[in-house]
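FORM 7B: Structural annotation worksheet

SECTION A. Query
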Amino acid sequence: MTDKTPVRRALISVSDKSGIVDFAKRLAGSGVDLVSTGGTAKALREAGLAVADVSDITEFPEMMDGRIKTLHPRVHGGLLALRDDEGHLKSMSDHGIGGIELLVVNLYPFAETVAKGGDFAECIENIDIGGPAMIRAAAKNHRFVGVVTDPEDYETVLDEIEQSGALNDETKKRLAMKAFSKTAAYDSAISRWFAGKLGETFPKDFSMAGRLDAVLRYGENPHQEAAFYKTGDKRPGVATAKQLQGKELSYNNLNDTDAAYELIGEFGSEKPAVAIIKHANPCGVATADDMLEAYLAALRCDPVSAFGGIVALNQKLTGPVAEKIIETFTEVVIAPDADDAAIAAFAAKKNLRLLIAGGVPAPEAPGLLMKPLAGGFLLQSRDSKVVTQDDLKVVTKRAPSAQELSDMLFAFKVAKHVKSNAIVYAKDGATVGVGAGQMSRLDSSRIAARKAEDAATASGASESLAKGSVVASDAFFPFPDGLLAAAEAGATAVIQPGGSMRDDDVIKAADEAGLAMVFTGARHFRH
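SECTION B. Predicted structure
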């Protein structure tokens, strides 16, 4: 059905008043009567506009500190009445209810109040009641009522009213869809905040909302559609980053950049660290006293896979490092900041995306991760376990050296961000071989060893980079074979969670091979 109901009266009640005065002036110029509440009415009157108070319509004063003002039949009747239903029209006439053809509402700033650290009572007071009720009423009756919840729609609404005195049916449907999305997101934020206050990580009904940031060219593959939504979480990363240059980020760019920056967060920001990521897996990670040294060490691990990869840094990107990065084709570089020399160096590479995140994500911070399944989704807390030296248990006859311990902790941090089964060889604060995503831990060990040999060949080294390294496994070795493969590659020490039924066999094999081995007691599966 179509209905070009003339817009004769608009109810305006907004928390965010940006652009509202100019919007209201143009409505008034089109002959639309204005009704408003509280601070919105005050702002419009100060601009010289004639505005009726909602209390003039309801003949009932605002009360209870403004909690009660629009919850009244003369408001909701004006929004919900079907203009082509004789019974509805009679009710309007009998009860003195005037029609409202345009509702302009944005809600109390609940999420913003939470974000700024408002206490419980303040957050509760910023839960809007009348606004969502009016929005849902107008959206349900969108055949006759336009509902505007986003200032971005002001211009479209004004253009149509100025041209024809009414809104198009498709516009009203689109506005209604946005309105229901808005109230759903609003209630989702409140629900999750309440659950957090009650310590309920997994409430019976769980919802998560996001706001569209960009419709992407395609998804993982060209035949798939994709979009990027932001949740409002301020964790430093792709959602908070400012893109300084480069073409539009793709689905795979965003996914890989997130993986890269989450990994680099493991190292804080005190000592330079670099991670190079390809297909969400690290192909090289290193820490050093100098950022350029760290980048070169990370690149050395797998220079072939680094081609077309993502580079993440935990400190400000400088000119010399940027000059070195552009020698290898790189899709995205993300860092907390960048100096002018780095920005200038990248300017010559117009397709390279440079993202400034403003900070580094804390690995121990809580959070939730969602994975969709057919007919549902899995929800889990973020893997925020940080293994320290105090967590380690030496299980072999030989204890690791100080250098081996340092490299073990480094390698285990990296293994946490490698797809399972994960094996990471590391030496002197840099990865020298990574085996990822294999069905067998033995295969991951062999792949990582081969990568170390390839890296040696590429760098002109006389022997595998795995010689004298340590090896980290994201989960226990179920049999000694994977561990023995690491020993054959030249590893001298092993860090793994432990917990296998055959731990004794694995420990015995480590002792016979002269390896030092520690158990962490914590597993880092990543699927």
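SECTION C. Observations
The first helix runs from residue 20 to 29. The chain has a mean pLDDT of 92.

SECTION D. Sign-off
Analyst initials: ____
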